[in-house]
Amino acid sequence: MWLVRSILVFLGIVAVLVFAISNVDQRASVVVFTRTYPNLHLNLVLLLAALLGAAVCFAVMIWREVGLRALVRRMRRENMRLDDELVALRNLPLSGLQTPPERPRGQAQKR
Question: d(Cα 55, Cα 2) in Å, to the nearest integer?
Fold first, then answer.
């Protein structure tokens, strides 16, 4: 499996390099909100867009991870509370139960 993954990563890197080399002389104007950046290299624009996308994905991932960890903590506390309640219920005294009357020795049990 690691061989297939390594080959796919290698092919991805080769594709990015071929794309970058073929667009070395290309220039583009970029508008970010209201500001215009004229005559930028296309490779730089693509690199910055990829970095920005990675940063946004990282921020979303961190936000989700923090939320999931909070949920796990909350569930653990709830589980501990329920375990404590179950132990308390198991240790309740058996008061209020009627004990069967004792039979005199030597008498046979009726069926």
Answer: 27
